[in-house]
Specification:
Keywords (chains A, B): DNA-binding
Shape of chain A: elongated
Strand content of chain A: 5-15%
Strand order of the largest sheet of chain A: 1-2
CATH superfamily of the largest domain in chain A: Winged helix-like DNA-binding domain superfamily/Winged helix DNA-binding domain
Oligomer: homodimer
Radius of gyration of chain A: 20 Å
Distance between the termini of chain A: 20 Å
CATH class of the largest domain in chain A: Mainly Alpha
Order of helices and strands of chain A: HHHHHEEH
InterPro entries (chains A, B): HTH_MarR-typ, MarR/SlyA-like, WH-like_DNA-bd_sf, WH_DNA-bd_sf
Number of helices of chain A: 6
Helix content of chain A: 55-70%
GO molecular function (chains A, B): DNA binding; DNA-binding transcription factor activity
CATH architecture of the largest domain in chain A: Orthogonal Bundle
Organism (chains A, B): Methylobacterium gossipiicola
Protein name (chains A, B): DNA-binding transcriptional regulator, MarR family
Chain lengths: 150, 150
DNA sequence: CCTCAATGGTTAGGGTCCTAACCAATACCC
DNA sequence: GGGTATTGGTTAGGACCCTAACCATTGAGG
C-alpha cells in the first residue's frame, strides 16, 4: 500500500530524471499517482468488505468460483492461480468461507489429493448481495475528482 | 491487494451495468485494471525493498524526512499524516529504522510528549542508494506493455 | 489555578499476506 | 513395477497494517 499524500513535485522528479537517463519524470509521476489512487480505492473496498464479514480475497474467491461454468467446483490451486495469491492464503480463506457456510469443499473423486470447492446457495446469495454495492462503490470512487496534483 | 488475473469481461460488466443504473461498465473496467496494475507494481516494489532490508513504509519514512527543509526532524504524528498510515505503524517503523542506525529520535525540547525524528548520515546514504533503483524499477514497469485485456 | 479535553505516542490484539518446509497422492520413466 | 519428480494442500513462522485502549503531557476555560 502506498498512501503518500504529497507526491514528489515535478521539479524533484525532473532533478532525478536529469541524473538518471532512461527515467522520465512524467512517467514516474504517473506511476506514483496510480499507486496512491489504487491504494485509496483498495482501502475503501477493504472497509466495504469488512463491514460485511468479507475481505478482498474472500470476495474474489466467491467471484471466481461463481464465474466458473463447471458446476463441480474449483481446486484450491486453481483459485490461487486465478487470484494470483499464495496457496496458504487460499487454504485459510476457503476454511473461513466454509465455516461461514458460503462454500463446500468435497474430496475430488478423481484425485485423492484434491478437493472441489463450490458455492453453497448461501454463498451465491451473499455474493449477489455484495456485487451491487461493490460496483456502486467503484463507480462512485471513479467519478470523484482526482486530488489536485502538486 | 488485488491480483485477479482474468478481469470480468466487458460483457459481464455490461450485464451488471444494465441492471444497476449509475454504474458504467467502462468505468468499472478501468478501476479493476487500475487495481491490478497498481497491485503488481506494489508487489515488485515490495520485493525491491525487502531485498535491501527496507519496506514501502520504511522507505517512505526516509523520503518524507529527507524532503523536509527543517533540519530538526519530524514528529511521528506528522510522519503518520504525510504517509497516511496509522501512528502505531510509525512507532514500529521508526523503531526498526532507529535500531538499524538510519534514524535518530530525540526528545523535543519544547514538548515533553514529542520526539524529533531525523535521518542519520547513514540513513541519508541508504536513501540515496535506493532512489535510483526505485525510479528505474518504476520506469521499467511503466514501459512494459499492459497485459492484454479480455 | 484546576479541571478536562486534545495531542503525542505506545501497547495489545487481530487480520491478511508471504515464503519455506512439510505430507500425501499422482505421474513419469527406465 | 519401483524410484523419483511433480502436484495438491497444509502448517509454521514472520512482515506489515489496522483499531481500540491506554499513558503522559500540553492546552483551554471557568
Amino acid at each position: 500500500m502506498f498512501f503518500l499524500k504529497e507526491l514528489p513535485t515535478r521539479r524533484m522528479l525532473e532533478t532525478y530524471a536529469a541524473r538518471y537517463p532512461g527515467m522520465e519524470a512524467g512517467t514516474v509521476g504517473d506511476a506514483l499517482r496510480l499507486l496512491r489512487r489504487a491504494s485509496l480505492l483498495l482501502r475503501e473496498l477493504d472497509a466495504y468488505f469488512s463491514a460485511h464479514g468479507l475481505s478482498q480475497s474472500r470476495f474474489l474467491v466467491l467471484v471466481v468460483i461463481d464465474r466458473e461454468p463447471e458446476a463441480t467446483g474449483l481446486l484450491a490451486s486453481v483459485i490461487a492461480d486465478r487470484l494470483d495469491i499464495s496457496r496458504p492464503v487460499v487454504t485459510e480463506t476457503v476454511k473461513a468461507l466454509t465455516q461461514a457456510g458460503l462454500l463446500t469443499s468435497v474430496p475430488d473423486p478423481d484425485d485423492g489429493r484434491a478437493r472441489r470447492i463450490a458455492l453453497t446457495t448461501r454463498g451465491q446469495a451473499v455474493l449477489a448481495d455484495r456485487l451491487p454495492g461493490y460496483f456502486a462503490l467503484i463507480a462512485e470512487f471513479m467519478g470523484r475528482a482526482d486530488e489536485p496534483t502538486a
